[in-house]
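Here is one chain, start to finish.
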Amino acid sequence: MYKILVTGFEPFAGLKTNVSGIVASSLDSKCFNVDIGERAIGSRGVRQRNPRLTWSSEILTVDSDGSRRISDAIMSDTIDDVDAIIHLGLARGASIPRIESRGLNSNCFLSPDNQGRIVNGEIIIGGPSEIPVSVSLESIQQENLKYSFEFSNDAGGFVCNETLFHSLFALESKQRKLPCIFVHLPSEEFMSVENQIEFISRISAVIVQPRHIDVVGAIFEKNDSCLASKRKGPKHSEKWEFPGGKIELGETEELALIRECKEELDWDINPVERIMVIDHRYSDFTVTLHFWRCMSLSQDPPATHSHSEHRWIKTSLLSHYDWLDADIPLIEYLQSGINN
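Its structure:
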């Protein structure tokens, strides 16, 4: 079960209510499964489709103390039992929810907060000009949240942005990889409280999980050897892997194999049979790898468009190389066939 801390604000600027506080309070201590529907292969959506979630809520004051309440708790390590933080605020004049993509290190108050404060300038002196939210916006975009929404690059110059920036800065300072996002909600005039609660529950089910990708891998065999490819680039550089890549939305595994091998190897291929499916979790995403035994229809050596090197490696020696972690169960499977 996942636990989400959701915050809202008290009324401000003469308003009698604040929908962000109403939604946050409504979710407090609730616990239920959130069904986000089936996931299409290649969609880049999250893996679990009906996760069980529970929420705790805090209502923040619209002032400097409120803007630092969660960040102070992060810095003092008193927030250590949650899997995500969702800040909510009211967006007056908006007709649909706005999901903020970043916090800006800038206050630009056009009216006083509930403390009578009007401030302008940096929120954290000498801090970065902006900090992106610590969630996968791609995953949010790929999922069915049921209700219309939009992404925003500017959370405003008031306490909402101040709160978001403080929280993101604290997470970076503590080097904590905790999903944290800010959602501006429209007033009840445009979207009922019930619908806003459902919307936030769906966002919760998405952001609390790492993004998920589906990958195909091609196994080419020749003279008791397998074709291996050495990665190049900033991520997992110099690691060995099998040729292949991400499945695109709408593709079958076979079509993805044909496309990827043409792009990476400049080979025309024939996928023969699926031999293994592996689920693996890296630090910031999960992956399902679909490995297929394939035949090359090309006579030329493989091109090195995406890799620094390709090498035919004796199956018995595969484990002597530095492979991507997700590929290791396949290495063990291939070598077990030799031993048996």
